[in-house]
Amino acid sequence: MSDIEAVRQILARYVRAADRRDGAAMASLFVENGIIEISHNDGGHLVPIGRLEGRDQIAQAVTGMMRPHPERGWSHHATFDHIIEIDGDVAEVDAQFIVYNTAGAVKPSAGWPAGAFGAQGTVTPVEAGYYRPTLRRINYHWRIQRHRIDLDLPMAAPGA
Amino acid sequence: MSDIEAVRQILARYVRAADRRDGAAMASLFVENGIIEISHNDGGHLVPIGRLEGRDQIAQAVTGMMRPHPERGWSHHATFDHIIEIDGDVAEVDAQFIVYNTAGAVKPSAGWPAGAFGAQGTVTPVEAGYYRPTLRRINYHWRIQRHRIDLDLPMAAPGA
Amino acid sequence: MSDIEAVRQILARYVRAADRRDGAAMASLFVENGIIEISHNDGGHLVPIGRLEGRDQIAQAVTGMMRPHPERGWSHHATFDHIIEIDGDVAEVDAQFIVYNTAGAVKPSAGWPAGAFGAQGTVTPVEAGYYRPTLRRINYHWRIQRHRIDLDLPMAAPGA
Q1: Do A42 and C104 touch (CB under 8 A)?
Q2: pTM of the model as a whole
Q3: Yes or no, beta carbons of A76 and B125 under 8 Å apart
Q4: pLDDT, tens digit, for every residue of B58-94?
Q5: ipTM of predicted complex
Q6: How many CB atoms lie within 10 A of CB A23?
Q7: A113 in contact with C, Cβ within 8 Å
Q8: DSSP calls for C11-30
Q9: Which residues of B116-126 are buried (b: 16+ CB within 10 A; e: fewer)?
Q10: Number of Cβ within a 10 Å radius of residue B29
Q11: Which residues of chain B fall below pLDDT 70?
């Protein structure tokens, strides 16, 4: 597998871990002291929102701070249009992302109504921005060293 | 072209065939006795929805069972974040997908209203899930042997 | 970097330039006398909408004719499922695209309401279609020679 493809697939595994709320899988994609920096891009000005340092904090945030999926719900963190520049053992990535929430409809006890056809429920894009991680190759494996998440939208958090 | 790229482009041709409702183009991406298995992922439990076996059944389903596009309508089956593992002549793929329907607005006989600007119509995501195909390389060509479609949302079908 | 990857990343830079309304960055991706042809795919019949020729016209259109982002707004031109065929120094690309607008909510002076959680604002898909560029390799660099944009939806423009 080419280095560019290997780096791209780290991002593919990153979004799987996010959607599964799987902190251990997420942490394994980072170097031991890896960093996540989340900012809101407020008209070109990056406003820091949060910072995580080290695999333990990262695992805990994914497992404990991301909202669990509601019943019949799931999410897709999706990435597009990767710009990947590799210099030796360092890769710089700039990728667009959008997060979709999906929510399945409840099947009525009498069955789907006459005329219902196809998927029953909603697919809603709720977040967007850029992932800008830096990865390092260590013993032939690419790992995220520092992950910048630049969000288009402001974030509300308890107490903020 | 690398094997990973060749496999990825099979998926790109798969979504083109789906959006064109082109059964012959779709069937040509599968091995002769290829299989499609469609399931609804109901909170981690895969509920079988349908199964197709062989190129003829696959071609017929695409041409005859997918709803035709309405007037001024089109769809985009889009895939993201491919995880592709190749071992010899076998490739295992895990890709996210979302289906969008697009519907063009009708241009009023008096022309677009004053102030109208840009695209006139709607782009609506309606389905999402994971494509999990297994491909085989036969005479240098990658073909889908078994295609798992795991849908986020339940499906309604006539009589179901 | 493989040729296919290099071509794919030209498209990734194209969408960045579009979203930044950066005419100079956009023009630099084209050959000097590059062409953009925009059409509306009206039920299989391509209706020409606009044509740009040369780097100056292209730069001017991106900087001057695309609507500026509103306050707290941004866009993502996103591409998917690239089919890339390379023959010597010529590459033919067929990619799906969707354009999303994002709009951040205004934070109330009293702070986000109790119970607000996560991204505050909207992510709306507004355009879709296919990018069908032809690229040429000149002195080891891929550049767009002719870029076809086939839109699903009709476009309204002042006076049209």
Answers
A1: yes
A2: 0.96
A3: no
A4: 999 999 888 899 999 999 999 999 999 999 999 999 9
A5: 0.95
A6: 21
A7: no
A8: HHHHHHHHHHT-HHHHHTTE
A9: beebbbbbebe
A10: 22
A11: 158-160
